[in-house]
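Subject: mismatched residue count in predicted assembly?

I count 1062 residues in my input, but I want to confirm that the predicted structure covers every chain. Input:
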Amino acid sequence: MAIERILKDDASEEKGERARTASFVGAIAITDLVKTTLGPKGMDKILQSTGRGQEVTVTNDGATILKSLHIDNPAAKVLIDISKVQDDEVGDGTTSVVVLAGELLREAEKLVAAKIHPMTIISGYRIAAECARNALLQRVVDNKENAEKFKSDLMKIAKTTLSSKILSQDKEHFAQLAVDAVMRLKGSTNLEAIQIIKKPGGSLKDSFLDEGFILDKKIGLGQPKRIENAKILVANTAMDTDKVKIYGARVRVDSMSKVAEIEGAEKEKMREKVQKIIAHGINCFVNRQLIYNFPEELFADAGVLAIEHADFDGIERLALVTGGEIASTFDNPESVKLGHCKLIEEIMIGEDKLIHFSGVEMGQACTIVLRGASHHMLDEAERSLHDALCVLSQTVNDTRVVLGGGWPEMVMAKAVDELARQTPGKKSHAIEAFSRSLVAIPTIIADNAGLDSADLVAQLRAEHHKEGCNAGIDVISGSVGDMAELGISESFKVKQAVLLSATEAAEMILRVDEIITCAPRKREDRM
Amino acid sequence: MALAFDEYGRPFIILKEQDQKTRLRGIEAQKANISAGKAVARILRTSLGPKGMDKMLQSPDGDVTITNDGATILEQMDVDNQIAKLMVELSRSQDYEIGDGTTGVVVMAGALLEQAEHLLERGIHPIRIAEGYEMASRIAVEHLEHIAQKFDFGPTNIEPLVQTCMTTLSSKIVNRCKRPLAEISVKAVLSVADLERKDVNLDLIKVEGKVGGKLEDTELIYGITVDKDMSHPQMPKQIQDAKIAILTCPFEPPKPKTKHKVDIDTVEKFQTLRQQEQKYFDDMVQKCKDVGATLVICQWGFDDEANHLLMHRNLPAVRWVGGVELELIAIATGGRIVPRFQELTPEKLGRAGLVREKSFGTTKDKMLYIEHCANSRAVTIFIRGGNKMMIEETKRSIHDALCVARNLIRNNSIVYGGGSAEISCSIAVEAAADKHPGVEQYAIRAFADALDSVPMALAENSGLQPIETLSAVKSQQIKENNPHFGIDCNDVGTNDMREQNVFETLIGKQQQILLATQVVKMILKIDDVISPSDF
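Triage response: the counts match. Full output below for your records.
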C-alpha cells in the first residue's frame, strides 16, 4: 500500500540530515558572500537592482548587501534577518554577525558529521557564548569619568569603524566629523538632529560639519537673502488654495461676475491668512506644503522670507532645531512658539543654493555636508557615516570600549578554549568549536588583506598566551601589533550584540530537523 | 458496486463518471487512511519533549517560520490529504481547548493508528478495535484522575504555577530563560484571573513583540502598549495621571452619510462656511478640553489644523489606534469609548497613572506605554528578541504557558510529566485488558502499547535508548508502585518527576487521550474513500 501524498502538489519536504545540510549550505553560502567585505581591506560589492533603471549600488555594508538579495533558502533568510536587526539596534557589525553565525554553523556541520547531536552542540555553544561574554567583560575599558580620554576613545572607535569603508582614505577627517556631531548631541541617541546632505562635486575631503542647519531649498523671489536674528514660524498649512474642508461643498454660480466675486473672496481669505501669519512678528516662514505665487508675493512685500515645500523630515527637524512649534492655525499669535536663530543666509555648495540657519536655539543640531565624485560614492559615504554615528551614539550611552583588530575574538577564544578543557562530556567539542569560529574572524580579516593568515593567527595566539596582552592584527603593516598603541578600538555594545545574535541565530538553525516548503503562491499573469 | 442492474437486467450507473474518481474500499481504505495519519504523526514525533527539534516552514509567500509548536507546524504545512487534515484539526482543537500538548496529541493518535493497523492485519473488525480503544481510554482517564494530585497556590504562593509553566517552556527554543518567562506568564495570568470564579479571560493579556534587544529584556507591563506615537512631534512624551478620552470619531469636519451638496453661490456663503469650518475644529478640541481630558486617543486621523489646535491647547493626542487596542485601553483605564464629541462627559474618561513614549534602538521606532491603569486588569507581555522568527516563536511559547497557567487556575489537579503519566496509564490499561472477556481485549492491550509510544519518543529525542529506558522506568513504577517515574530527558540523574518538578495539567492530559481516541475511532470507521482523481 503506497503512502499517499500528504502535502500539496508543489510543496516539498526535507527531513533530518538533508534538511540540516540544506540549511548549512544556505547559511554558509551567505557567509562566504559577505565574508570578503570584512575588515579594513575588505572588498566592495556591486549590486544591480532588477527594478526599472537597473540602479547600481556599490557598498561594503553587510546589511545593505544582504537586504538587496533575493534569497530562497530559509536558513539564509534567518541570517539576513539578524544582520538587519543588528543594523537597527547598534548600526554596525552587520557583516561580523553574519560571518560569526556562518562560522558557528560551519563548525557545527563538522560536529554533526562526527555524530554529535545538535542539541549537545547547542548547549555547548550556549555555555561558550556566556563564557566569551564574561571574558570580554573583564577586559573592557571604561573611560566614562575622564572626558578627555573618552573623547579619544570615541575618535578611535570612529576611525576603526570608518577604516573598513570607502571613507578610509579620509578617516581622520570623517572620524572628527562624526565625533563632533555626536558630542553635540550630549548623550541623546536622537540621530535626527544630525542631518546629512549629499552634494555631488568636489572631493570627499571637502565634506564638512556645520553647526547650524541647512535646508536644501531656495529662497523665494524678491525676498531677503539674509536675515539676522530671525524669528521663524514653522507651519504645515495649505498656502495654495485653502479649500473649504466641509464635505460636499462646491461652488455653483450663475454669472461671470459672481465667479469674480468669489475669486476675490478667496484671494481675500488668503490675504487675511498671510496677514495673520505676518502678525506673529516673524521674518521667516517655512511651510511644508506649497506656497503659491500670490501669497509668496505678499510675503515678499512684507519682507518675510518664505520657504515652501520643505518635506516632513525637514519641517520636524527645523522645528526641533529652532525650538518652534509646527503650526497649522494662526489665530492666536501670542501663544504660538516661534523658532529663533541668529542668521539665515543663502549659501552655495557646488552649484546649488541652500538655505543655512546658523546660531540655532538647540545647540545639539548640526549638519554634515558630504561632497564626493559621484552619487554612488556619496550614498556609500552616507551609509558609512551613518554606521559610525550609530556606533558613537551608542557608545556615548554605554561607554565600555574594547580593542579592535581581532583582539576581542582572540580574548574570547582563549577563555572559551580554557573552558573547553575543563568541561567533561561531549559538550566540550562544541565549546572548542565555538572558539575556532571566533578565531575565524581575525583569520578572515587577514585573508582579506592578502596576508598569511595562518602565520599571523598563530603568532597572535602565542601573544595572547601572555596575560594582559593587547595584540591584534595590524593590517596596514601586515603583522601582529599592539592595538592599544595603534588606537584601534571598538564599542563593547556592538561586540556583545554580534556575539549574542550570532549564537542565537546559529542555535535556531541547528534546532531544525525538517524543512517544509509550501507550494509557492501562483502569480497571476499580468500580461 | 457502482454498477447495478434493474429488473430487466439493464445496467445502470449509481456512481457517475467512474473514470474521474478514485475509490478505495474496505481494508484498503482503512490502511491508506492509517498510513496518511501516521505520516503526519511521524513529522511531529521528533518535536516532542525538551530535546525535540524544530521545523522550518516556508510559506507560499516565502516567509520563514521556525517552530516546535505542533499546532503551528500542522497549520502551516499545506496539507492536501483528507485524513491528514483531520489530524491537523485534532491538533487545533487541542490548541483551542487546552493550548498546550498539541504535539503530544498527534503523536498519540499516530501511535493508536499504528497499533490499529496490526490488529486489522490480524482480522479484527475495525469497529471492535474502536470499541476497545474507547474502553481503554475511559480506563486511562479514570486512572489519571486517580494518580493526579491537587496542589495549592495563591496570589502569594505562585511557585507551583511557575514550575508547571517551566515544564511547558522547556520544550521551546526559549528554554534558555524559561524561569523569567514562566514568572512573567504566571504573573500576567494571576493579574487578570478571577480566582473566585476560577476563570481567566486571556483576551486581557496582550502579547506584543518588537525585534531587537535580548530575550532577557522581555517584560510584563501592567498596562497596555500601543505601537503608535503622539500625533504631533512636539507633544509631551510623558503624562502623569492621565485622563484619557477614547474617541471613535475623527477630528475632521463631519461627513454625513446621506449624500448632500453645499452650494456656494455668494461671497457671504463662502465666508460663513469658512467660519463654520473653523468653529468645528475649535469646538471639537474645546469639548475634549472641557471634560478635563489630558490625553486623546482616537481611532481615526486628524486634520492638520485640528492637530495643531490640540498641540496648542496642550492636549496630547494619538491617532490611528486600532479597534482592538482601543477596546483594551478602554477596559484597562475604565473609560468608555465615545463615538461622538457631544457625548463626551467626565465620567467617560479613562484613567491611567502614567502614559509615556519610549523609543528603541537606532531606528525611529516609538511605542506608547499606558501604565498604572485605573482598572489594571489588562496586562501586556512585551517580548524582545534577536529576530522576528525568535519573537514569533516566543509569542507562541508564551501563549502555551499562559494557557497552562489558566488551566491550573480552573482546575488545580496535576499529573507528573516526562511520560510518567502515560507509563502509569499504560500499566493500568494493560492490567485491565486481561480482565476483559471479548475480542476488545486485544484493542485494549494495543492501546496500552500506544500509550508507551509517547515516553518512547521522548527518550528517543533525548538521545536515550528508547526501549531500554522505557522498560527500566516501567519496571521501576511497578516495583515501587510509584507513578512519578518518567524519562529523564535533561540528564539530571533521577527518574522521579516529582523531584525534577515536571508537571502537566490533568485536564490537558485527559483531553489529549480523549481527543486522540476520538479521531482514531473516526478514521477507523471509514471504509470507503471516494475522491475526484487527479487531473
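Chain A touches chain B through 86 residues (CB under 8 Å). Marking this ticket as 'not a bug'.
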